[in-house]
Amino acid sequence: QVTPDSRLLEGLNDPQRAAVTHAGAPLLVVAGAGSGKTRVLTRRIAWLIDERKAHPGSILAITFTNKAAAEMKERVEDLVGKRARIMWVSTFHSACVRILRKEIAGLDIGGGGFKSNFSIYDAADSKRLMTLVLRDLDLDPKRYQPSAVLHWVSDHKNELRDPDDAVKDAKNGFEEAYASAYVNYQRRLREANALDFDDLIMTTVQMFQAFPDIRENYRRRFRHVLVDEYQDTNHAQYSLIHQLCGQSLEEHDEALAGGAERVPPSELMVVGDADQSIYAFRGADIRNILDFEQDFPDARTILLEQNYRSTQTILNAANAVIGNNRGRTPKRLWSDAGDGERIVGFVADDGYDEARFVSEEIDRLVDEHGLRPADVAVFYRTNAQSRAFEEVFIRTGQPYKVVGGVRFYERREVRDALAYLRVLVNTADEVSLRRILNTPKRGIGERAEACVAALADRERVTFWEALVRAEEAPGLATRSLKNIQAFVGIIQELQSMVAADERPDVILESVLERSGYLAELEASDDPQDDTRVENLAELVAVAREFAEDPQPGPSADPAEVEAGTVAVGLGDFLERVALVADADQIPDSPDGDDSGVVTLMTLHTAKGLEFPVVFLTGLEDGVFPHQRSLGDQPELEEERRLAYVGLTRAQQRLHVSRALVRSAWGAPVHNPASRFLDELPVDLVDWRRTASAQTQWGRPDLSSGQGAPLGSPTATGRRNFSSAALRADAAAKAKPAREIPQLDPGDRVLHDSFGMGTVVSVEGAAEKAVASIDFGSEGVKRLLLRYAPVEKL
Ligand code: ATP
Ligand code: MG
């Protein structure tokens, strides 16, 4: 019975209340962006605990990122108190790690032989391993690229197809090669006692299928399962939910030990929006949401139609764009927040001009409208686009935070340090072990490594055991043997710290010290190595924070959390680190003040978030929608859903921008306006542009009276040239006698192959002038201006 005055139902509309209080049959909440799906899910958890007296430990809630999980948990705690702490709110991956750590030892799944301290291989580890596999198989690296093979393997895992299936289904020589790579890759993972990201889900599902009594234990435990962002589940994740909540599992039930009764399915609620499905490339299947009622026959569906996030203008824009996708269920999404501001459109000369516009606009919003930089998010399609924004923000002194991008945990030195730690916990982890064997350089060359590998093969022992027994390796030079023994000694010494339960930060510091890693960096005079030392200091700080703040990690044992004795061992630390997702790096310093920090991120990481002010940038065909989607209807529709996600993050103000010229791989490219811009209703957008943009801009229909229309006299009187115009002019004339450009520090230039750059310094004059120019990721180049193909912008 609904308690209408429960505080848990405050601030909810009728369909939202119905979803929160619903009991029994599986429930699907489908609704457009910002209609309160996540809010409903959170409230429902509180409702289950408070009103329906569900034990918090019987709740499993799945979110898309660890950060979203932490926020949801916090919110539920605010509503019903500390006892909520022991519920499982986590990503699919974290939940599966937790289950597997408990169950996997001794089970015959995934080839068997896994121990509960298995390593988790991320994308970079997987790639290294696949590279080794392809080399072993003698496959031509040009035809069989590790990343392509891995993608193929990942697709298989997301579809729950194991190596045997792949071998059976191979239709041609090419697929046979892929399948044998898959077979060998899995074998080596198993030998390394490691699982990759996709394995975490697939192995859990395989375990539930092969051991129904284990599955029944989890069914008995999790009486309530809730899933946010359901539109982005793939087949493996879907199967996992089905194992826990489905009714028709007859095919597995014969195997139930001693003919035990099947536990009735748990209560399931999933929330999602088919228009926001943006992970098809990772196997996400929109049909999971469309077929929900078929898969769960007595399911109930609730629609939410009121949006509480955005102004009507923003919603109209988003609805108009997504309306161009075919075969979708039209939705009526409305808001009573009023029309609000018109959308600001901006046409920039190039990527820097676009960044300058964003920067100036942020200043204006702060000065004139009392907004804080933290209210602002800048979105772009691909990580590389952040560079122009970063450069401009650094110059203007605007603090910013890039979510994703070159991630801290992907930096070489951080990976090296973590590889040491992983070896200490799991010596079977061959990828990590080989990574650190000669890092820092300690005179163990490739030949020595090959000798040890041969010994491991011959004796059928792990690479580590072969290192320990290196004196048996034929052909190993005495010098190498000594060096290997010294290395083994260091590792064993460090292992004794792990055995003594030393804190992760203490162990890490010893690793950096004893391995000689830090000493090597400190002795170097490469300025990059200073940064590396700083990053390692940061990693030690992360470990220390982890050791001192007994906050439950994504897969901490709830019993320990309750008892206040959360494990803080090295293994726990590594697990926390391994599961950090892109979107988990959104700033939220509890002590520091983040109000001055602008957030930059890709559209994919923006899912589920909201910001008062949004800049959606790089709206050019070939950038967004992405180049590879242009000739492909399904991919184009996925890009459009991504646009819908981006547009609907905005609460009050939305800006859309494009650049006339963008440098791609160092060469300037002139992209037409994004088709998504054409899909915005003309009357919703207020277009602006810099003077120079007029020459190239072919969108008079959208200018809505702002600025001079194309072809008007002012349009030809351009004040400064866009680089595209310059290049076009240069091509038209018969190569004019080249003038040596007059450059000063700070000037922007365009180089034929390095792209955009900033002049750092100039020496000499006239014919002899040499400029140092910073081309960002291309590095700083010293160029003789007489010959260098640079143009001043
Ligand atoms: P998305 O599809 O982007 O994930 P969502 O459907 O999960 O969006 P929420 O993030 O839950 O939507 O809600 C959007 C915003 O609207 C939040 O700020 C939320 O607090 C607010 N909100 C939701 N329902 C109500 C309501 N009934 N009254 C007032 N505010 C609400
Ligand atoms: Mg949401």
Give a verbal description of the structure.
By secondary structure, this protein is α/β, with parallel strands linked by helices. The protein folds into five domains: 7-99 and 202-306, 3-Layer(aba) Sandwich (Rossmann fold); 119-192, Arc Repressor Mutant, subunit A (Orthogonal Bundle); 314-403 and 593-716, P-loop containing nucleotide triphosphate hydrolases (Rossmann fold); 409-582, PCRA, domain 4 (Orthogonal Bundle), CATH 1.10.486; 737-792, Thrombin, subunit H (Beta Barrel). It contains 31 helices and 21 strands. The strands form four sheets. Strands 9, 10, 11, 12, 13, 14, 15 and 16 form an eight-stranded mixed sheet that branches. Helix 9 (197-210) crosses helix 10 and helix 18 packs across helix 19 (430-437). It is globular and about 80 Å long. The model is unreliable at 586-591 and 692-737 (pLDDT under 50). It binds adenosine-5'-triphosphate (ATP) and magnesium ion (MG).
Give the tags.
793 residues; DNA-binding; Rossmann fold; binds adenosine-5'-triphosphate; six-stranded parallel beta sheet; alpha/beta; 5 domains; Arc Repressor Mutant, subunit A
